[in-house]
Amino acid sequence: MLINKLRDIADFKKLNFPSGYFESLKTRMSGDVMIVLAKLIKSYLREINLPEDDINGFVDQVREGDMTRFFENFHKFDIQEFARQNEAKGEARGEAKGEDIKLIKQIYTKYQKGKDAETIAEELEEDLETVNKIIAIIGEFDGEEFTADLVYEKLRGDKIAV
Questions:
Q1: 37 within 8 A of 28, measured Cβ to Cβ
Q2: Burial letters for 24-35: b for 16+ Cβ neighbours within 10 Å, e otherwise?
Q3: Cα separations (Å) of 40 from 33, 63, 72, 152?
Q4: Which of 13, 25, 111, 116, CA to CA, is 20 to 30 A from 34?
């Protein structure tokens, strides 16, 4: 399939579309075909990890039938740079998760020793609300079922920032 062969702007240029080809697509294609094409392009752009805002901008251009502008703008995106940025964001999320897991384990250990939330918060220099939220979730688990990862996932699922 053609979409699987398109990896970067150089691949687009190798296709050598005739002048005016993309402008003629709008008049020759039905709205349904443009919707399918937009969905294919959206899927492809997600696969190469473009930001959702950029994907939506490209897809809007396709839906409007502005294929020339779509391909002109596509080359402006440095896919490798986006990959590097996404990797850096992933590393930062991983580091933050590691810090949160460490905090959860510290709170759990102190809580198991019988310390109250105020003492734990003071010793760890954390705000009392965060400590109380973590203790409440820890309380939902039996000692045998508890893992810091489960508490972390529960916090994330509840959209509670640690």
A1: no
A2: ebeeeeeeeebe
A3: 11, 12, 18, 36
A4: 13
Sign of the four-CA dihedral 127, 99, 89, 62? negative
Residue 3 tokens read as 């979409």
Question: Where does the chain have alpha helices with state H?
Answer: 2-5, 9-14, 21-28, 31-47, 52-63, 67-74, 79-112, 117-124, 128-138, 148-157
Residue 21 CA: distances (Å) to CA of 25, 26, 148 = 7, 9, 57
**How crowded is residue 70: how many other Cβ atoms within 10 Å of its Cβ?**
19
15 contacts 3 by C-beta, under 8 angstroms: no
pLDDT digits 0-9 by tens, 32-62? 677 777 788 788 777 777 778 877 877 777 7
Q: Give pTM, 2 decimals.
A: 0.50
Q: Is 63 in contact with 32 (CB distance < 8 Å)?
A: no
- Count of residues making up the chain: 162
**Dihedral of CA 146/149/154/159: which sign?**
positive
Which residues are within 8 A (CB) of 66 and not within 5 positions of it... i.e. 6 or more apart? Answer: 26
> Rounded to a whole number, what is the distance in angstroms from the first to the last CA of the chain?
46
Domain ranges, ordered by start, for the chain? 2-77, 81-157
